[in-house]
Amino acid sequence: MKITLLSMLIVFIVTMTMTAFCQQENKTIIEELKMQTIDIKTSAFSEGETIPVKYTCDSLDVSVPLSWSAPPEGTVSFALICDDPDAPMGTWVHWVLFNIPPGIKELPEGVSIAKDSSFAGAVEGKNDFGKTKYGGPCPPQGLAHRYYFKIYALDKTLDIDKKADKADVEKAMEGHILAQGQLMGKYKR
């Protein structure tokens, strides 16, 4: 009889734990489904196509012109991250921007955030080249790499160091992303 009661107690505890876990997972899934998307595009290439050489380390290495759709109500700032998940040593970060004012809906080609007053308050964080600016595609010889330009609409400005990297920005954004979008281009040498 002790074994039966103990077994029933264990089944009850496991059932309650699983129910609570499932409710939390469902809440997370519902929140993700509610998240809006932002359309991000460039005049330089189409989704999944080749990034022109002028935006790479093999040429001028100027930033790609980008534009995005209107953000949801309540957007206080944007963040933008460009990275290459195909790099030999793991994901390589090419560009980190944050605290982009909510009225901005595009970044012109070769933008210099520090020199353009319309981007007041925006910050270029540190990329994996160790610089606080755009660093274009620069893969080793071989197969094409994918480069993701990811835009995030946030409900706050990020109170982090001006030399913050991708990990710092992602951590600061947790729980504050209202909408997001991405554009992918490829490049190979």
How are the SSEs placed, and which strands pair?
Blueprint: H1 2-34, E1 36-37, E2 40-41, E3 66-68, E4 77-84, E5 92-100, E6 106-107, E7 123-124, E8 145-154, H2 166-173, E9 177-187
Parallel strand pairs: 1-9
Antiparallel strand pairs: 2-3, 3-6, 4-5, 4-8, 5-7, 8-9
Characterize the overall form: globular
Largest sheet at a glance? 6 strands, mixed
Mean pLDDT value? 90
Quick one: how many beta strands? Answer: 9
Q: Which fold does the CATH topology of the largest domain refer to?
A: Phosphatidylethanolamine-binding Protein
Total number of distinct structural domains: 2
User: Which strand-content bin applies to the residues?
Assistant: 25-35%
Description:
It is a single chain. By secondary structure, this protein is α+β, with helices and mostly antiparallel strands. The protein folds into two domains: 34 residues; 151 residues, PEBP-like (Phosphatidylethanolamine-binding Protein), CATH 3.90.280. It contains two helices and nine strands. Strand 4 and strand 5 form a beta hairpin.
Please sum up the structure shown:
This protein has 189 residues and is α+β, with helices and mostly antiparallel strands.
